[in-house]
User: Fold these one by one.
Assistant:
Number 1:
Amino acid sequence: MKRLVYIVCALLFVGTLAAQDQQILSQTELLGTARYVGMAGAMTAVGGDPSAVKDNPAGLGVYRRLEVMLTLEEKLDKVHQYGASTNVIGRNAFMATQASFVFSMVDNDRSRGLIANNFMLSYHRLKNYQREYSAGYRDDIFSLSDVIAQKTNGLTASDLQPEDRWENTEIAWLSCQGYDTYLIDPDPKDPVLWTSKLRAGDLVNTHMHITETGNINQFSFGWGGNISNRYFVGVSLNMLSLYHNQTVQYTEYFRDSCGLYNDTYVSYSGVGVNAEVGFIAHPVRWLRLGVSLTTPSYTSITLTSYGDLMGIVPVKDSLGVYRTTNITSPTPQSRVTDKSIRLPLRVSAGAAFQLKNYGLLSLQYDMAYDKNIYMTHAFRAGLEGVIVNRFFLNAGYAFEGTFKQPKAQCLPYNTIRTDAYSQFSNHSHYITAGFGYRSTHFSIHGAYRLRMQQFDTFAHELATPYDLRAMTHSIVISIGFHTR
């Protein structure tokens, strides 16, 4: 009966871990051509740019020429813990973020009806996970061993001893590791209740080092049409390639030289698909209005995880004297294939204002929604000004919200996952600037992007979160070739 109570309580949190996985794979960032970046991505109503087409396929209908474009980016990501004296960790990444080929068929003899049929093959990087950082906290109240003890409540010591316990769907792998490393003890009065062997009322000092790699790439085939130079429509089919790898070393120290070390590895890899439809209206010369809808992305993911747990605990030797010893328990490698994760539906709407012959102002609102991770919003504003003929400058600002309020994930009572940590990104601010030159057959664009982001990382579900701040500096260069 007692075990049933623990099961019922734990089932309330079964979906939480899946939501964490979903949020990680749903993240995107401001990546694309230099012109797109320079305008902070506010191009849903502008079109005529490969990355604008990524957000709204109707922008493909604006083209009237063949074009090939490639974009390269150099990024420096720096992370520090707010209020702590830890060193700032920086990580560089050099990557190709965009490549595209546009084929345009224009009937120059028509002024009404379907004037242009345009097609585009493109590659876009939607997210780059390259990041490395450390964080620490002094005198935290709870230990990871407290979490392990909670997950083990309802089991007896004999349940944790058989060799096939790793295959028992009623037993969490962290419970097996906690028992092996002597981090938890059964209550002498009730053998199905467990307590931390490290606690003894002491506060704990923690340290975590996280390394992330991976990316989300999108490969698209799209069509765009120009109707009477007033309306532009477009559709695209998008294939996603997803990969995310996170390695975490987590350490706890107590005053009596006891503690623990948890080393975990989690990797996601898979593919997905979605479709997108868009519309742009050009009712008057100085105004364009655009809207697009991207269906939820349906993915097939392989998830791999494993980890080592080491306890630094007092153990009685053959003479009956307690000595501190190190005991390590590795897990088998767990691989879950064909795990379906649905990524959010996305909507984008914008307006672009032509400022006579001086340039344009573009405003945009984006929304992403899924019932498991709720809704997030983004607001973008971009400005483009013509300096002299063929030369122009860009500037922009973007705000991106978060999918849900930061809250530590709760591992299910019987999970095979040992990654007790969780991370939730808060809002991001982008400040961008760029320049460009376009000749008869050649174009070159450059942009600078500054991203400021705050995110909370929890070592485990009872931990005080680490308040982390990231500043990411990026230089983007796009080179294009086109016909007249």
Number 2:
Amino acid sequence: MSLYKQSELFAFLDSIGRKPNKRLSQNFLIDGNILNKIVDAASLSSGDLVIEIGPGPGVLTEALIAKGIHVIAIEKDRLYAEQLKRLDKGNLLRVIQEDVLEVDLVPLLEGRKAKIISNLPYHLTSPIMGKILPLYDKIETIVVMLQKEVAVRMSSSPGSKNYGSFSIFTQFYSDTEYLFSVSPNCFFPRPKVTSGVIRCIPKKTTSSFDKEAFFTFIKRVFSKRRKMLLTILKEEVDKEALICELQKLGHSEKCRPEDVSIEDFVHIYKSFY
């Protein structure tokens, strides 16, 4: 069975009496070329371990197993989870019928490093990425498809209008690259938005400061992104000291949050908090 073919996907859905649930972001890939590009982007080798989040009917799962990949598929929908087992060949598939946000991923790895490849449920992108990116020492590569607007934000650099708190969170934990866009025509049912595929290569983070407090600080700063950083922080830090630090980092005292790199934000945070 080739589930990326629309006729075969329709036949499967009819056989189980199921239609995609838009509320759960169930838009299934029906383009073989895009499927291959996603798989290729992860540089897989036979025997690799992949965690797939929200596999649905198993379009991506099927392609991974065909390459000899060990797959841990985490699917909240009970019927889809049960049906995924039909794809297993050679004991390569383990299905977890659960909400990924409720699953402790580390014990599933059994000491191995994994790659994460997924067409993420778009309405859950932020909490899912918030869960998996801090596992940088357990994950080799993350290749995910999500709403293009979000993918662009996650991979944007300082100076861009799309650079913000989610960019900093993503790139604090990984080297992030926007790979390619995916047309709505590549899905059934056809979504209203264009999708994008990004690749995150986790990087070792040795900083010992309170990261949760740091990201809370970043969100607060970017909630006023149109203002100068000096104005945003004037009630919290000494003005002259902040001006001095900004100048050391090569920034004007009139700089705004979108002008400041992740490394410089870390320096500012450690200097004043």
Number 3:
Amino acid sequence: MKLSIIVPVYNMASDGKLQYCLESLVHQTIKDYEIIAVDDCSTDSSMEILADYARKYPEKFHAVHSEVNRKQGGAKNIGMDRAVGEWIGFIDSDDWITPDFYERLIRRGEETGADMVGCDYHLTDKHSMEIGQIVHNNKKEQTGILDEEKYKSLILDGGSLVVKVYRREIVIDHPGRFPEGIFYEDNALGNSWMLRAKHFEYIEEPLYYYYQHAVSTVHTITQRRCEDRMEAGRIMLQEAKQYQYLEKYRTELEFSFAVLFYVNTLFTYMQGVRPVKYGFVKRLGSEMKQTFPGFEKNPYYCQRVHEEEKKLVRMQMRSTFLFILYYKLLWAYRNFRKKRKQEADGAA
């Protein structure tokens, strides 16, 4: 079989989200493919929807039910264990793709000899095929036969896993699987997959629709989600040690870890979690410092992290108490200014 598409599903029945995704999959122009949709113990009618598609398209659609909620990583692992395709693709069950998405990506791979192919995507908040905000998922200079510089670039800017297809030997024919029971599972394994690839190709067109809504992972902030991001960072480093590329790409991995594990976690936590817990913030900073003591001198960190964030990081590294106090006062002041401006604009 040419292609296996793996779809982890959890409580996506409302508002037609799941049907819109599945409709884009069952009408792909590529021939000889299978869809493996794995229901991760949903509490809504998601499994019934999947079963209906399996009845309508028995030659290509497989509906699988997990008796235990294993999060997206576990659902993907179930799909990977069943996949028989030469190429492997993943899609989030609230997103959708153009009818020729997989045909074009795989054709580019087979014409060039690439074992990993990607494209750009749209950000959209409505179910339509209109072009939304375009996000460039990769860079032209990353394409072709992969060398050390291109690998470094892919570690720094690898782009989204779901906006790519992979030859099965990169993702299936290895013992590693996604971590289960956490979110941000893609971040944990992405580097190992990219470093197994020998040739990467990139279609600079948006063929994937990334649906933005209030319950998506990126818009849900809890302490548990923050802890999941931290765990994904730890697994990312474990992968680098296990497959012996940590030292070769230490500078790039240090920066990637700092952003994933620490910087993004710190500021999303401070913005979205209430009440702020001193112990959590203290532990986060302490583990970052212990793992990479000199991360603030990393050249990518110096170039890419916003100056205000670097200032706040320096403060948190010195005193968690002062950092939390300053941060709360800063945002109270900014919210006050914003409210006053809105009132003034309304009066005008």
